[in-house]
Amino acid sequence: MSSKRKMALVAFLQAQNCTNFPASWRHPASQLDFMTADYYRRLGATLESGKFHLAFFDDRLAMPDIFAGDFRDTVKEGIRAVKLDPMICATTLGMATEHLGVGVTYSTTYYEPYHVARIFSTLDHMTGGRAAWNVVTSLNASEAANFGREIVDHDLRYDKAEEFLEIVQGHWRSWDDDALVLDRETGTFANADRVRRLNFTGDYYSSRGPFTIPRSPQGEPVLIQAGQSGRGQQFAAKWGDLVFVIYPNLAIGRKQYSAFKEALSTSGRDPNSVRVAPAVYAIVGETKAQAEDKRAELDALAKPIDGLVLLSEVLNFDFAAKGYDEAFTSEEMDGISGIQAFRDRVVAMSGRSNPSPRDFVEFTNRGRLAEFPVFVGDPRTIADEMEDWFGSACDGFVLAGTHTPGAYDDFVRLVVPELQRRGLFRTEYEGKTLRENLGLSKSPRVIR
């Protein structure tokens, strides 16, 4: 195999009734057995045959019900209405594969650090060192209500998440790699001098230990982070091994990728030690015309209600309360407590500090394929676009499915061989663990 650096490929999965594209369930080729183990086993088999690095499950802890203060549109239209526990679905997928990494989204706001440390360490062992944790702080009042809590301020969520990560990684690192002895002759199970209590006490959390799980084959799970707001980006630069981003186009992607890599260097981290991967859709056909026909069919499935429901969810603001062309007040803009990167993108791209709901719909494309860059064409055309992005705007891609399993079947069958032919993507897995396959060190980083 060529020594040329290879791109990372990540599948953006959902343990729900649709993909990231909420209209996907309406596609005639979508398989609707999303509440069965076979659904996830099939996806895993497809992705592993295509040598994907990771299958990563997104999650929210509530049904989208902020739009008009009701859930009826969500349920009627199937707008991410069914949400299974992604940890169970990911484990099912992991048990059906041997090399594919398995990532799960878990909130630092509604779970406890010790629980998260233990469940992900267990997943890491059960998969032979292939686990990843997508760290989120959660974002809306519906999630808070489901847990009987009040929503936490945006910056405070990150303050608490800093301590949360210190505890989780502290527990993961409280057993040395050689702590287990397993010597029946001497009766020594483990070297007690190689195991430590954490004894962490912070402003928001405390946790004593000792942790009950030794180190995994890859040391500890890979950390995925998706922060793109100012505070979120700082968090990602400090903790992330794989940083998931949303770039509206290549020009902005190159600018933000360069700035983030520079921020990593400034903070003392090796920029090459962190993989940056933007979300994209790929619609591939045997010919360009066939791919364009597929795109038109998919676009026709989307409904305006999809975007309004999902904008309300992600920004924690009821878009039904505003006229479509009524400008948000400065107070309303400041009060948006969801994913602030969405708000900031709309302000930047519209040139308006007080945009309207129409601006949010048009500049985020929430609920539509155009929410992410869309690569459309025959295998060579799509590989050309990916090659343009790779190295200058990203280190790989998070591939969202237009529908399942067809979108991934087509990509693996048609695009992966072309990427391999160009030396941009591997032909075999490099190792057994996710860290080995991503080119990440097993040794723990020093947290500054």
Sum this structure up briefly:
The chain has 448 residues and is α/β, with parallel strands linked by helices. The chain has helices at residues 37-49, 72-77, 86-95, 113-126, 141-146, 154-172, 230-239, 250-266, 288-299, 304-315, 330-335, 340-350, 357-364, 379-389, 406-421, 434-438, and strands at 8-14, 54-58, 101-107, 131-136, 180-183, 188-190, 200-201, 206-207, 222-225, 242-245, 275-284, 374-377, 396-400.
Explain what the structure shows:
This protein is α/β, with parallel strands linked by helices. The mean pLDDT is 94. The radius of gyration is 22 Å and the shape is globular. The protein has a domain at 8-153 and 215-296 and 370-438: Luciferase-like domain (TIM Barrel, Alpha-Beta Barrel), CATH 3.20.20. Strands 1-2-3-4-9-10-11-13 form an 8-stranded parallel beta barrel, surrounded by 6 helices. The chain contains 16 helices and 13 strands. The protein is 39% helix and 14% strand. A hairpin with a 4-residue loop joins strand 5 and strand 6 (188-190).
